[in-house]
Write a structure and sequence with these properties.
Radius of gyration: 28 Å
Order of helices and strands: HHHHHHHH
Strand content: under 5%
Low-confidence stretches: none
Largest sheet: none
Mean pLDDT: 83
Structural class: mainly alpha
Helix content: over 70%
Length: 179
């Protein structure tokens, strides 16, 4: 919702609205896109109320970054304040910032999709050795007699179990990280 709002804000600014009017326009368009509401809509309404009381847009964005200290919100607020104070092309900077944020968010989404597939794959690979062993035991139990009733078989089975458990723990560790 934040990304969509930035893109709407950018399009309102490119249409010639002032920052305050662009906030109102982007809020109205965001309400159309998300009729169920959300945190971003509530924040925008709060920002609009403060803007009506003549609070500067820089303070509004910095306040938003303080309340939601995610990387995207903080960087957008910093870029907005820097451009607004230095007198740069606000629309161009917001458009490039919005496109960069959209790329970052899309990349994160792709990574989490890829990671979810690897987690599922890891779960399947964890279950398969036990499933094959159970299948062989039910189908032809005499194949496993040497594995459980012979000292060399018990030794080999114990080593295999250790490898299996270490592979399981390593696989769990490999798929647990923050994006």
């Amino acid at each position: 919702m934040f990304r969509e709002w930035i893109l709407l804000l950018s399009s309102s600014l490119s249409a010639g609205y002032s920052v305050e009017n662009a906030l109102g326009q982007s809020c109205r368009e965001l309400q159309i896109m998300f009729p169920d509401g959300g945190i971003m809509l509530e924040e925008l309404k709060d920002m609009l109320a403060k803007a009506e009381n003549n609070e500067r847009p820089e303070n509004l964005f910095l306040d938003l970054a303080r309340r939601y200290p995610t990387e995207e919100v903080k960087s957008f607020a910093e870029v907005f304040c820097t451009v607004r104070i230095s007198g740069g092309s606000l629309n161009t900077v917001i458009q490039s910032t919005a496109s960069q944020m959209a790329e970052i968010m899309d990349t994160r989404r792709e990574i989490s999709t890829f990671l979810a597939s690897k987690v599922y794959e890891q779960k399947i690979m964890t279950v398969m050795p036990a499933a094959v062993l159970l299948y062989v035991r039910i189908g032809s139990g005499e194949f496993l007699k040497g594995l459980y009733h012979d000292p060399a078989g018990v030794f080999v089975a114990t080593i295999c179990l250790g490898i299996y458990l270490s592979a399981y723990l390593l696989g769990k560790r490999m798929v647990q990280f923050e994006i």
